[in-house]
Task: structure prediction
Amino acid sequence: MLSPAPPTLSDGTKVVDLVNVNTREVQMRALSDPELYELEMERIFGKIWVFLGHESEIPNSGDFVTRDMGSDSVLVTRDKSGEVHVLLNLCTHRGMRVSTLDAGNTQIHTCIYHGWAFRPNGAFLGAPVEKETMHGKMMSKEELGLKKARVTLYGGLIFATWNIDGPSFEEFLGDAKWYYDILFKRTDKGMEVLGPPQRFTVRANWKAAGEQSAADGYHTLTLHRWLGEVGNYSKKGEGEGSGGDLSPEMYGVEVSSPHGHALRCIDLGRKIRRMTGLDPDVLSVDEKLNALPPAGMTKEMVEQLKRNLTPEQLHVQTSMPPQVGGIFPNVLFGFVYIPQADGSVVGSMTMHAYVPKGPDKLEFVNWIFAEKDAPQELRDKMLRQTIQLFGTSGMVEQDDSDTWPHMTLAAKGAQGKKMTLKYQAVYETGAPKGWPGPGIVNEGFTKDDTQWHWWLYWRQLMGDAV
Ligand code: FES
Ligand code: FE
Result:
């Protein structure tokens, strides 16, 4: 049960004191403490909207996948009317998992223990030997259905919350929605997954990955340094920033959110200049869209953008589009432009969830997307390239997932747990002149503000009196 007072750990530490709002530091113990983990499952994953997948994973009536919503297994189902449901994967009889599969199709989920049966919408159908009324007479069948979460579909992405009367999904996204719409709601038919998500287990606390996904720009320069030095990604010979230096890519616009969401908007000017030989400032929006369609789109598809986005969103898309960032608490998105050996560019559209599996363990889940309208040749290239870079064996993710276990282990040290994470590089710029998007916006070389807002929201959710 949640206590009515702000939570305090068993050694007397107030949870809010783990985040020092004056010095912008976070106590390292936050990355390993089991007491905090239990609180997170209640106060974060038990309360806010959690990303579970995409509706194209369950296109037909009866389709389902099993996912984790914090520390609980859930069934994500589609019923006969086409509606998507998220149900606690726990039999209301004696608590067995209703489904032990990863995915499947059925109109009746039958518990393997004593045979209680449920519809894809969670309704209790009955128990074996109906005339013997195995479920008794004390509760009605209506009362014995599976526990249901509140569900929303956003651009086909499935989010759910146990907070049935809490804030709407739109309120949760806040100002960040304006930017996410540029990515997830830009085409007429929307996105679909390219196969089931890839998964692997990392021996790390979910927050080590979660706070990185809040648009950590700095680590790109060092941890992913090879991006500027190897193969098609090499920046060598590009004039400014040549010799493998990625630092020019670190200038742009970053959007922070009071709800911990984060976006890095990266300048397309150099890429458009390389492709057209022209100064991007003299090109119209149409000319820029033709020279470099958004990641994952073709020239033939760009007309759709005008039907789905505002002129202001199109301006951002063609000059400084959101390319990487996160949705609080544990989602990373990447809509990035990857140079090819022949001089062309192929986009990647990917989302990761860092699913908590205990204080020291997370499951990395990677979805790869394409627009439904994208031609097969492009889909094939996107799938191959995204696996190569951002998949479970991807070169980028090998880098990232190497740091999280070390941080988690370090946070257990007798001395280590008393050290701090620091977010002291502070923007002093504000939004660029004429920037049309809402939110907490800053321009310039990447800073710590997006990640700091991630922690401030963690502090708010974890520290509030209930
Ligand atoms: Fe499911 Fe008994 S626990 S039928
Ligand atoms: Fe990274």
